[in-house]
Design brief:
Elements (H helix, E strand, L loop, with lengths): L1 H61 L2 H8 L12 H43 L19
Helix pairs in contact: 1-2, 1-3
Length: 146
Amino acid sequence: MVKKYRYAVIKAQNFIRDFLNIQQARLTVVLKYADSLEAQWKAAQKKSMQKSMEDIKADDRKKSTKKSIISKNKKPETMAYNIPSDQKMHAIRQDLHQRLKIYRTQTNEYNIELEKYNYNRKTRLITGSDIPPPPKPFFKVYFIFS
């Protein structure tokens, strides 16, 4: 009796440990992907800011001195912002949670459709109609910043 209980506890601990490892792996993958996109985004923002500053300088040369003072005070339209890591982690966790919820509902719908398909497949052998099986959903780890 004690061995059976001990085995059940060890099995539950292994399930929990595996679940936490998977969750942490997903977070690290998404964080690395987000950091790479953030670096690309900052580089693009820097280029656009340099271009807008060059446009302001070119406008200053063309305009009179009175108007150039006004245009010097004009700021570029785009600015790069740094997101604190705790806010980024919170946003990523929320996004992962929402996508997991969507994936689970899609999986449930897929299972229902698969049962219908298997049931109809028996009758298709008689009728001879060929219907493809429903597409299986997959969990998307990456997301695109908008």
